[in-house]
Amino acid sequence: MKFKYFHQLLLSHISVLLIAFFLLWLLFYSFLESFIYQNKVEELQSFGVQIITDLTDPTEVSPSFLKHYNDLLQARNIRFYLFDGSGKVVGSKEAQPPLVKLTEEEWNDIQNGKSVMVKHDLERFKQEVTLVALPYMENHTLLGGVLLASPISGAREIIQQINQYFLLTVAFTLIVTFLLSGIISKYYVKRINRIREATSMISAGDYHFDIPFSGYDEIGGLAEDFNRMGGKLRDSQQEIERLENRRRQFIADVSHELRTPLTTISGLVEGIRNDMIPREDQKRSMDLINQETKRLIRLVNENLDYEKIRSNQIKLTKEEIDLIEVLEVIKEHLDGQAHLKNNEIILEIEAGISVTADYDRLLQILLNITKNSIQFTSDGSIYLRGWQSPKETTIEIEDTGSGIDPEEIESIWHRFYKADLSRTSNAFGEFGLGLSIVKKLVELHNGSISVSSEKNMGTKFLIKLPATY
């Protein structure tokens, strides 16, 4: 069975109020009753002391004395009785005066010179009274005393009236509590329902929500946490979508790159096997098959290399390397490819500049970037530069080629990204894995790489490697 928040809140509020009012009533009632009775006792005791003080002989009381105190006390609704040492009432008109209305224990206290105070008595005077009895002692001998009794009906009426006011206060408070509980529960239920709606959206895979919140209570903190969680889930969802798109693109790119050489190889092999290719052209066909096979091997190796680098499975062997020697090796290795596109590789570096790096991986980095520059440059120049500071060595590779659109610069580091989408194949670095490998290798050297470019104004790569490790 559902127990709504409103009912829970109302029940808790009313329970707390009822318990608080009940305890307050018990304490207040006990205090008030004790206070009223104590005041009455003190009043009776005060008159009793005054009577005992004015009394010269409790066995012989003048009528004027009795009349004086009778008039005085009757106005206050107090009755008094004078008694002698035997307990008989003095000044009574009866032939046989009655005994004062004291119990045996109370009479013993009187005989021992002690006062008797009874706050609440129901039996002796056929109504509720408060009574006080004071002894008249002389040389430790009881000569008599006085007993005063006052009805407490007035005190009872005061207490009952206060109880009525108290019950009215409780009833009014409960009504206000009911209304406030409704308003508060409605406010909180509304806030909780917003979080429930957000939870339902999350379960449905929709993370685009924004819960209004205030940081003053736990629900506000929960709403803030939900918003933060929703933001992270949105980011994760976007990242998953990006990864999924890249996965699809990766499969499409690999399939495309594999299809071309495999189709070429399959066609040539079929032609040779069926004697469809003349014998004088078979050597050239075999060379083409060999070239396409190497192309497939490069694709597989680059993929394997990328995965090893990405998962930090390669180990770098760093050493002090003369940078000018490395750049000369790059120039010597790629001069032939550069001349095919009427390009020139130019070294601009002073002797004595060194770099701390893994030699083979440094060659791989520079070869990839330089090949990329040759690929997108025709009838131009590729500059290889280097300089050194106390903290780092900087290598710059600049070309005068076609450049890269500014919005594409960050994308060039993605796996299989191609800046020229119309390009299907080329002689160098055709698979689009080179720059993603380059960036990973530079990061493994604790270095950084950046690129700046303008369309038709060339491209500049800047690599910075720490001087020490």
Describe the structure.
With 469 residues, this protein is α+β, with helices and mostly antiparallel strands. It is rod-shaped and about 165 Å long. The protein folds into three domains: 5-157, Beta-Lactamase, CATH 3.30.450; 233-306, Orthogonal Bundle (Helix Hairpins); 315-466, Histidine kinase-like ATPase, C-terminal domain (Heat Shock Protein 90), CATH 3.30.565.10. The two termini are 68 Å apart. The protein is built from nine helices and twelve strands. It has helices at 5-54, 63-74, 104-111, 153-203, 218-273, 279-310, 323-340, 359-375, 434-444; strands spanning 79-84, 89-90, 116-121, 129-138, 141-151, 318-322, 344-349, 354-358, 381-388, 392-399, 448-453, 459-466. 54% of the residues lie in helices and 17% in strands.
E-strand count: 12
What structural category do the secondary elements indicate? alpha+beta
Between the first and last Cα atoms, what is the distance in angstroms? 68 Å
Low-confidence stretches: 419-432
Based on CA inertia axes, which overall geometry fits?
A: rod-shaped
Sheet with most strands: 5 strands, antiparallel
CATH class category name of the largest domain: Alpha Beta
Whole-number tally of structural domains: 3
Strand content: 15-25%
Spell the H/E element sequence.
Answer: HHEEHEEEHHHEHEEHEEHEE
CATH topology of the largest domain: Beta-Lactamase
CATH homologous superfamily of the largest domain - what is it?
Answer: PAS domain
Number of helices: 9
Q: What does the radius of gyration come to?
A: 55 Å
What is the CATH architecture annotation of the largest domain? Answer: 2-Layer Sandwich
**Reading side by side through the largest sheet, how are the strands ordered?**
2-1-5-4-3
How much helical structure, as a percent, in the residues?
Answer: 40-55%
Overall pLDDT, averaged?
80
